[in-house]
Design brief:
- This protein is mainly alpha-helical.
- It has a domain at 33-97: 434 Repressor (Amino-terminal Domain).
- It has helices spanning 33-48, 53-60, 64-71, 79-89, 93-97, 104-111, and strands at residues 2-6, 13-17.
- The protein has a two-stranded antiparallel ribbon with strand order 1-2.
- Helix 2 (53-60) packs across helix 3 (64-71) and helix 2 (53-60) packs across helix 4 (79-89).
- It starts with a strand and ends with a helix.
């Protein structure tokens, strides 16, 4: 909400922005499931290939801080940057956004 106030004895108008109550509204910086999934896949693939964030950043022509924040799920990544990261990791874009497959046979073997 905005308000204009005329200050007495001054020849100016003061423009004041007041903050409205946003309780109950979603936080725009909250991570959605897709961001968490992308971040987890990206980190898992990078570590499996024994790559550093810096090497991925260099290969993708992105800043290392961008790669780091993407792995923490703090970025709403463009499709172009998903493509760059996928190429840098040597995987398809689909692998970065794919839900994990739970292999029942692997789970049974682990419990034996």
């Amino acid at each position: 909400m905005f308000a204009l106030y005329l200050k007495p004895n001054l020849k100016c108008v003061v423009f004041v922005a007041t903050r409205r109550n946003t309780s109950g509204m979603p936080n725009p910086t909250q991570k959605c499931d897709a961001q968490r999934l992308f971040a987890a896949n990206m980190r898992r693939i990078r570590k499996a290939k024994e790559l550093t964030q810096e090497r991925v950043a260099e290969a993708a022509d992105l800043h290392p801080n961008y790669i780091s924040s993407a792995e923490r799920g703090e970025r709403n990544i463009s499709i172009c940057n998903i493509e760059r990261i996928a190429k840098a990791l040597g995987v398809t874009m689909a692998e970065l956004v794919a839900a994990p497959v739970h292999d029942a046979s692997a789970a049974e073997k682990a419990s034996d």
